[in-house]
Amino acid sequence: MTDKKTPAFPIHWENHAEGMTLRDYFAAKAMQSNLTVIREFPDEHWRMGLALDAYDMADAMMKAREA
Q1: Torsion over CA of 60, 2, 27 and 59, rounded to 10 degrees?
Q2: How far apart are CA 10 and CA 7, in angstroms?
């Protein structure tokens, strides 16, 4: 089972793993794809909306991995 802290590119040492989480990696990919289709930015809050949408997509991708 994966959780929101599963590392995407883990670095292991002394029984400890650290690195970017898989959720963060998925969110970054989702955000990157959304930015390619945005033609104009409607207001000053678009960044937060884009980030929230990216993490919603990342959460869906994490859930799909468990299916």
Answers
A1: 20
A2: 5
Q: Smallest Cα–Cα separation from 59: which of 34, 24, 33?
A: 24
**pLDDT digits over 13-63, tens only?**
666 666 778 899 999 999 888 877 777 777 778 888 888 999 999 999 999
DSSP symbol at 3? -
User: In the chain, what is the greatest distance between 2 CA atoms, to the nearest angstrom?
Assistant: 48
Predicted pLDDT of residue 1 = 47
The pTM (predicted TM-score) of the whole model is: 0.68
DSSP 7-60: BSS-EEETTEEES-BHHHHHHHHHHHHHHHH-----STTHHHHHHHHHHHHHHH
C-alpha angle 26/31/32, rounded to 5°?
100
